[in-house]
DNA sequence: CTCCAAAGGTATGTCTACGAGCCATTGACG
DNA sequence: CGTCAATGGCTCGTAGACATACCTTTGGAG
């Protein structure tokens, strides 16, 4: 029997209760920029169906987001729950998990996604989407950079056509962002990052998996080094 | 708003109820060979703690495994729940999920794991473990090959030192195995597979990430082609 | 101006899962 | 040969999550 392997398989079956998990998901969709400020979340009934959770639980989760000013709800037809402009609490000051764990998984998933995206056949819509996200990220302000950056990286994962891979990247990015929220984001880094994004997307659109992978690896190494430096 | 990205983020928060999830985990530990036939599962109380689930739920899960002859329980000190030799139902005839989804995620995770394992610093215990799993797989019979193969691949993931990556590989392997259970496993494939394992492990032990990745990619391509052929 | 579809808001009974405790059994050790 | 620690077996009350149903608000369509 492999003692060590048990740790991976006999880990907790559920991350938290249904309420906490739901809050986490909605937070992800906001923090990763999937639903931008001013935009509307899906209706409570739709969320309940999509998330596989009762509407009561969805409402409790939304309520907790309201109390922290992340969203506002309006009644009536054409109402809904809307994302607010300001994100009040950038980081709840969480404990750093295993840094190596997060960075290793992120590197594996994202370099793999870049390679797979470049190796697959992209439709016109996906090509346009990638270019649009690249443009958004490169023209974004410092304040909203993290969100635009995440949207770009998520778009790359989506381009692989694997929903599981996309979900895994989203999850991994949330964990990485929790750490990144604790270190400064500087203009020079941002410019460098944009250049790297450019190279990654170009390689993907050109169908060059090897270059896409390498470019993504270099891109991730940058923040990985920063994190290792700041958080030691 | 990126419509497509919502599909990844607004997926169900929980795979099933606590009972089903627990059964699934215990099945994984048996099917992937983490707990071999004749060996004992952790005690009910320990499983309850590790899996973050009540002991009642653990017992219900174990009971359902008992009814399918996967395990037997003995009372008293030095008792416990033991894995049976024969696995009665190789495949419950499940529906094939998205083949592309499974194979893409598996390729990303496992090639990434091989590369990371080769790039990291391996302790003596881990090196011995890898060699032992390789030996086990190469000398195994056809009947137990799938299990020994999984243990080897899990050991590679463990060698990265990332628990999350190991867990992801385990999950991904279960999904892939469900598909592989529907296609024949032939002696020639097995010999070829063993040669590839040899090359993968050698590269990892030699600290050659590029070769490790490539060898793993070729290894996975084999079964991927088989699957695509058989399941179209 | 009226209607009504679609959204959020509320209430209730049911069922799952949990925690906590106790019982029954077993085999090694003194 | 008795003790006892650790295991599986069992019960019961509580809390979380559920499905379902209905109410209230809103603004565009007719």
Automatic annotation (TrEMBL), chains A, B:
Top-rank lineage group of the source organism: Bacteria
Cited Pfam families: FCD, GntR
Natural source organism: Lentzea jiangxiensis
InterPro entries the UniProt entry points to: GntR_C (IPR011711), TF_FadR/GntR_C (IPR008920), Tscrpt_reg_HTH_GntR (IPR000524), WH-like_DNA-bd_sf (IPR036388), WH_DNA-bd_sf (IPR036390)
Gene3D superfamilies according to UniProt: GntR ligand-binding domain-like, Winged helix-like DNA-binding domain superfamily/Winged helix DNA-binding domain
GO molecular function: DNA binding; DNA-binding transcription factor activity
The HTH gntR-type domain, residue ranges: 16-86
PROSITE patterns: HTH_GNTR (PS50949)
SUPFAM superfamilies: GntR ligand-binding domain-like, Winged helix' DNA-binding domain
Keyword terms, alphabetized: DNA-binding, Transcription, Transcription regulation
UniProt protein name: DNA-binding transcriptional regulator, FadR family
Keyword Transcription on entry: yes
SMART domains the record matches: FCD, HTH_GNTR
Database matches in PANTHER family: GLUCONATE OPERON TRANSCRIPTIONAL REPRESSOR (PTHR43537:SF24), TRANSCRIPTIONAL REGULATOR, GNTR FAMILY (PTHR43537)
